[in-house]
């Protein structure tokens, strides 16, 4: 099971048909690339275009990117101790709703299952990220993230984050080590990198390093 497998399955659930009616009642916001989203109290946000990076404020590492229909602000509403920040990874369009609008819609019997699916996949994606970054070696973490990066560039074509930055900002791996592994893989013809971006994985990556 890979991130791409999970994400492609998530997209088959066709949650948009359930959520779009709610989003039409909200206020549209635009966040420029690299700018933070300032959460307002008792507000819930849904990304409708682009993606936001989710960061734990204590260590500034990027946990991952928001998934479609993730209710930004709900975790903070339920647990005020949770301190996350959100940064636009491309130009982003969001819809802002009041918590009352959100709860009135989703806490109906026929909509609760939709919210349960979204929250369940948020947990599943988080566990997948935890597994990826707790590999037996730093190389295996980098290896896994190369595939994640390729999938992200294919599914989020407006993002232009470099591969080294993508890995370093999401792990505690040293900059020197990440660049060394990428350089060796590039020299071996395993990957193609142009202007800092991973363009392709050309053949099976080594099982170890």
What is the count of β-strands?
Answer: 9
Neighbour order of strands in the largest sheet: 2-6-4-5
Q: Calculate Rg over CA atoms.
A: 18 Å
- Average pLDDT level: 90
Concise synopsis of the structure shown:
With 209 residues, this protein is an alpha+beta fold. The protein is built from 8 helices and 9 strands.
Give a description of the structure.
By secondary structure, the protein is of the alpha+beta class. The protein has two domains: 3-132, Jelly Rolls (Sandwich), CATH 2.60.120.10; 138-201, Orthogonal Bundle (Arc Repressor Mutant, subunit A), CATH 1.10.10. Helices cover 44% and strands 21% of the residues. The protein contains eight helices and nine strands. Strands 2-6-4-5 form a four-stranded antiparallel beta sheet, with no helix packed on it. Strands 1-7-3 form a three-stranded antiparallel beta sheet. A two-stranded antiparallel sheet has the order 8-9. The longest helix has 24 residues, at 109-132. The chain starts with a helix and ends in an 8-residue tail after the last strand.
């Amino acid at each position: 099971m890979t991130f791409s497998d999970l994400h492609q399955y998530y997209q088959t659930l066709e949650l948009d048909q359930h959520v779009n009616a709610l989003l039409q009642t909200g206020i549209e916001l635009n966040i420029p690339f690299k700018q933070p989203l300032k959460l307002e109290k008792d507000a819930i946000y849904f990304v409708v275009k682009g993606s936001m990076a989710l960061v734990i404020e204590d260590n500034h590492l990027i946990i991952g990117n928001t998934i479609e229909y993730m209710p930004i602000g709900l975790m903070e509403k339920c647990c005020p101790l949770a301190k996350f920040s959100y940064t636009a990874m491309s130009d982003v369009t969001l819809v802002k709703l009041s918590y009352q609008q959100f709860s009135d819609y989703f806490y109906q019997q026929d909509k609760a299952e939709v919210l349960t699916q979204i929250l369940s996949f948020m947990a599943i994606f988080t566990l997948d990220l935890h597994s990826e970054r707790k590999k037996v070696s730093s190389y295996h973490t980098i290896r896994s993230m190369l595939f994640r990066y390729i999938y992200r560039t294919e599914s989020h074509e407006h993002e232009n984050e470099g591969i080294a930055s993508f890995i370093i900002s999401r792990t505690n791996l040293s900059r020197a080590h990440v660049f060394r592994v990428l350089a060796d893989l590039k020299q071996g013809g395993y990957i193609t990198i142009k202007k800092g971006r991973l363009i392709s994985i050309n053949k099976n990556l080594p099982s170890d390093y």
